[in-house]
Amino acid sequence: MFHGVQTIFRSGLLALALGLSLTAAAAAQGGPPPRLDLTLTPRAEALDVRMRMAAPALVAGGGLVRLPLSLVGIPSARYDGDALRAEDDLGLIPLRQEEEPPTPQGTYRRWLVERATQGDVIISYAAPPRAVSAATNNGPLFDLRQEAGGFIGAGVGFLAAPVAPGPWSVRLEWDLSQAPAEARGAWTFGDGAVETVLPSQALAFSYYAGGPLGVFPAEGGEGFHMYWLTEPPFDPAALAEKTQRLYDHMSAFFGDAPGTPYRVFMRANPYDGVGGTALGRSFMFGYNRADNPTVDSLLGLVSHEVAHTWPAMAGEHGETAWYSEGMAEFYSLVLSWRAGVTPLEQVVETMNSRADAYYANPHIALTNAQAAEIFWTDPVAQTVPYGRGWMYLLQTDAEIRRATAGAASLDDIVKAVRQAQLAGEPYGVSVWLALVGAQIGDEKAQAQFDAMAAGTRLLPPADLYTPCLQVVARQVRTFELGFPRAVLNGERIVSGLVPGSAAAQAGLREGDAITDVRDLNVARKDQEQTITLTVERDGAALTLTYLPRGQTVEAWGWARDAAAPESACRF
Fold first, then answer.
1. Residue 202 is assigned to a structural domain of this protein
2. pLDDT digits (tens, 9 = 90+) for 127-157
3. Parent domain of 24
4. Domain check: are 402 and 497 in the same one?
5. 275 forms bridges with which residues in the sheet?
6. Domain count, the chain
7. Computed from CA positions of residues 231, 236, 237, 238, in that sequence, does the dihedral angle turn out positive or negative?
8. Residue 217 lies in a domain
9. Interatomic CA distance for residues 228 and 184, integer angstroms
10. Calpha distance 78→107 (Å, rounded)
């Protein structure tokens, strides 16, 4: 399962914060931000984009708009050649493209004007949907897709946003004249025609959906909404109702004002697996119909992405992913139980599943920095911060409760970090250590943090959930695909097959071309789940099924203490 790319998620939140601060600055200077009108027109073949930028007054060589060629492996619409056009009061503006210096996440393309602009500038282009198939790799949900007569995706996948950071007085409109009669348009920041003030980055890191959308609730303007194009194989209203209950509880826990808007988008994938990606005040998740997803099976994913809305830590992704992912794992479960959305039995089952995945991760001993180096090329490495951060937070919660005789907990620390963020104060690792150290002692706080960051195998605290749950020893087998995971991200030609691995024993050979993979995402979390590869060898198609597991390692989990009533349970 692929969850949100948290450097991007934090960018979405920071974009909103930046927009507020820049808006305040503009107001202090006595003038509103410049106008930016955006019209999106869904057609049969593409999503037309028309952006009017109010008098940007660019000089020759100035940057107009930018869009990544790909972001964390997900390709964008690109707009090669003259696919993107710009004009002003003088007519067509000659444009030049250049690539910005690459980053670990991807490379941005920038369009520059070859002459000075005069008056408003109108940018127009047709955004083509990305073609996907059963062979497409699961990943962050950034690309623009066409589905059930509509379009859905993140701005960063198709919207060339202004180079100027803003803020902008944005008006977004949907031209649905070429869409089905029941079509509507939705955006992270509202439905239909929306006027708001945002920085450029928020235009990119937000979600858009236009077409014959299903929506929950059917009526109502603000607050929680969920959207979909294809009617899913589960009851979308039932999932939305549970998600809204969870969101309302989480929102109150983190101190939001009642009715604060939040939007969830869902789409169907033709490939195996589920996944979600959170941006500011919204997220999108995808599912595969062949997997027979249910409301209960999706709730863990959905709650994780909702929980990403609040906890954030300043710093590079490799330094802070343990916090963003670990906190989402921790509070998606804890607050779901407190809200009455997830029953106790499912809480325990989920905890054990997460613990098994942590101990079975072949990268468990990598340092945070080492895991970050391969994060974008190895999806198994991407899961390191999830289990590691969660287990470390369990330990931290136990230490704080123990040191304060239950008077304080992890809740107090995460709320303090968030308050610092909202106040524009530092909210990085040093702030975290100071807050935790004030409860358990600076030396202990530093030592436990250093052990986590170094890749030390962490044990669940024995007393955290007693008497309700008891920590028990378990055994798991490490996840072992049998060949480098990068093979599935590239040409899909098997290279580096591990001799004696389950894949080799199943008959996989060097040079086999992998055309399809089934159940891989489930198998990373389920010790008994096999995967099925379809390969092409000498012009013939072969199907190979095996259990992607290696050596047995010691692990720990939880068991329900039958002597304790459920009323004794707390999380």
1. yes
2. 999 999 887 877 899 999 999 999 999 999 9
3. 6-307
4. no
5. 2, 286
6. 3
7. positive
8. yes
9. 11
10. 11
